[in-house]
Amino acid sequence: AAQTEWKWVVENAGNTIYKDWAKARLAAKAPEKKDTSARLWRLSARYGYEYDDNVTLKPGDEALASSEGSDAGRQLAEFIVRRRVHSSRDTAIDLKGGFRQTFHDSGLDDFNFTSLEAGADVQHRVTWFGRKVTLRLEYDLKAGFLDGNTFSTRNIGTLSADTRFTENTRTVLFYRLTGAEFGPDGSRPAQSSRVGIYQDVGLTQYWYLNDPKNYIFLRGELNGASTTGSNFDSLGTTARLGYHAGIFKNTDLDLMTGYEFNNYLHFDSLSSLDRGERQDSIWDIYGALTHYFTPEIGLRVFYRHVNADNDNGFFEYTRNIGGAQLLYSKAF
């Protein structure tokens, strides 16, 4: 009976720590059996179309904004593959690669974005003070191209610790370090270059409700950047609150809202039209419904609203994005 319950959790708990524990209990019950059907590959893909009413982040102040249109439809294609290269009772190592591409309508081809990604993901479970903790180290290399031209190269390292203090909670502490290189820095690199080191430290707290598929989460971060260009040195905070639930059979609801504040410490406007200091104050709301036709194929419809307030009018804007995506994920 216990094995039946654990198998149910593995099949229905989604990407949660409950699923990992259930797998471990099943393995402990039958250590002599080797899983010859282990699925070492996972392929994820999505294709969608969305409408964005402010692709160019056009300021709300018409005196500062370009007269050119900023709204467009956008196609998005994404492919991600993971390969499990090592697996033992307490350790798992994955290699991963990805490709993302957007195509814009309405003559905004300059904003077509390509992303090539590669990385590794190492997870190791330990016991600290009688408590199971999953340590995780991730590395990602992301190369971005804007309309075919080099935009950015980012080396990202993320270290996290994941544990449960109660049966219905999960806590994740993380630190992320990013080294970023960008394309042309403009006429004043010492002021306008974004090349530098970006750091984030934060904590995400999950509260699980009546079953592992229904939960609330709250995330808080401290963010900092030290860049070659003085205009992008910054300190800030980010907060995000979210809710995930299975509302109908094979249908999930996601609701999220977030707030981000960034103070650009040495900002000096490059335009005489607005000499104000730059302090980003951005909040957003997001909602999505995802229906799974099969365990591998789903359809998502979503909407996001962004409101960016700023002391400098060039960085003050609103943005609405809505669309639909076809999802695919399969392990083999």
Key attributes of the depicted protein:
14-stranded antiparallel barrel, globular, 14 strands, 3 helices, 332 residues, mainly beta
Summed up:
The protein has 332 residues and is mainly beta.
Major β-sheet annotation: 14 strands, antiparallel, barrel
Q: How much of the residues is beta strand, in percent?
A: over 45%
Topology order in helix (H) and strand (E) letters = HHEEEEEEEHEEEEEEE
Mean pLDDT: 89
Shape: globular
Helix content estimate: under 10%
- Secondary structural class: mainly beta
Give the total of beta strands.
14
Gyration radius from CA atoms, angstroms: 22 Å
Distance between the termini: 28 Å
Uncertain residue ranges: 31-36
Strand order of the largest sheet: 1-2-3-4-5-6-7-8-9-10-11-12-13-14
- Helix count equals 3
Task: Reconstruct the topology from this structure.
Elements: H1 2-12, H2 17-29, E1 41-52, E2 72-87, E3 91-104, E4 113-128, E5 131-146, E6 149-163, E7 169-182, H3 189-192, E8 196-208, E9 215-227, E10 234-248, E11 251-264, E12 279-292, E13 297-309, E14 317-331
Antiparallel strand pairs: 1-2, 1-14, 2-3, 3-4, 4-5, 5-6, 6-7, 7-8, 8-9, 9-10, 10-11, 11-12, 12-13, 13-14
Kindly describe this structure.
This protein is mostly beta strands and 332 residues long. Helix content is 8%, strand content 60%. The chain has three helices and 14 strands. It has helices at 2-12, 17-29, 189-192; strands at 41-52, 72-87, 91-104, 113-128, 131-146, 149-163, 169-182, 196-208, 215-227, 234-248, 251-264, 279-292, 297-309, 317-331. A 14-stranded antiparallel β-barrel has the order 1-2-3-4-5-6-7-8-9-10-11-12-13-14. Helix 1 (2-12) runs antiparallel to helix 2. The protein is globular. The two termini are 28 Å apart. The model is unreliable at 31-36 (pLDDT under 50).
